Amino acid sequence: MYEAKSKEIVLRKVREALAKSAPFLPPTPDFSTSVYGPLLEDLSVLFAETFIRNSGTFVYCENEEDFFDQLFEFKKERGIDNLYVWEPALKKILHASGINFNGTEDDFISNAQASLTTCEALVARTGSILVSSANASGRRLSVYPAMHLVVAKLSQLVPDIKQALQFVQGKYGNRLPSMLSLVSGPSRTADIEKTLVMGAHGPKELILFLVDDHTD
After folding, report:
1. Burial readout 179-198 (b: 16 or more C-beta within 10 A, e: otherwise)
2. Which of 145, 137, 130, 168 is nearest to 47 (CA)?
3. CATH value at residue 191
4. What is the pLDDT of residues 65-106, one digit of tens each?
5. pLDDT tens digits, residue range 140-192?
6. Domain range for 112
7. Does the pTM of the predicted model rise above 0.85?
8. Is the Cβ–Cβ distance between 115 and 147 less than 8 Å?
């Protein structure tokens, strides 16, 4: 008798629910709009703050000559004897400025103390560097050495990842690089006992030299 009454109560509730009008459905979201709010800070300031918060080392350079001076001092202070540079354009300007580097792959595995590469773009909102395999540095120079040095220009700064990928698409068209990677600070992991370890899967340090190429 009790079970029959319980069943009737359940069925009555179901019938009442079906008799009600359909619940209000929210409008379909506009997927063409950004999920982020507007950026209120200058892009360069936002990038620098976020990049440093991600444990990156940020070096502002007023111009290309200032970059040479800052790089020379950085190498001297950090005792970098083996700076690997494989991009022809970078090798040319470093050679002209008198900065020593290793432009070959000789003893790379055993002596890869530091590397210097360019990048595709800088993402202000996440403080990330977009690198690819399209240049002569390939994949290894941004991953294997303990220190990854990057030189970029202020004109490469974009607000979000979307604009960075659009830039790459416009640059390479249908011949996209086989590897695109967003680097947000040094390599880190906390997989083992939740202890943060730097450099477990890549460089322990990420250093960015940002050259101001904007003219007044």
Report:
1. ebbebbbbbbeeeeeeeeee
2. 130
3. 3.40.50.10420
4. 999 999 999 999 999 999 999 999 999 999 999 999 999 988
5. 888 889 899 999 999 999 999 999 999 999 999 999 998 899 998 886 665 66
6. 40-211
7. no
8. yes
Angle at alpha carbon of residue 121, lines to 137 and 48, rounded to 5°? 110
**Sign of the torsion formed by the C-alpha atoms of 210, 214, 215 and 216:** negative
Q: Which residue has the tokens 């294997």?
A: 144
Instruction: Domain count for the chain, please give it.
Output: 1
pLDDT tens track for 7-56: 777 777 777 776 666 666 677 777 777 766 666 668 999 999 999 999 99
Give me the amino acid identity at 25: L
Residue pair 138/104 in contact (Cβ under 8 Å)? The answer is no
Tell me, yes or no, whether 168 lies in a domain. Answer: yes
Helices (H), the chain: 2-19, 43-53, 64-78, 88-97, 108-111, 161-172
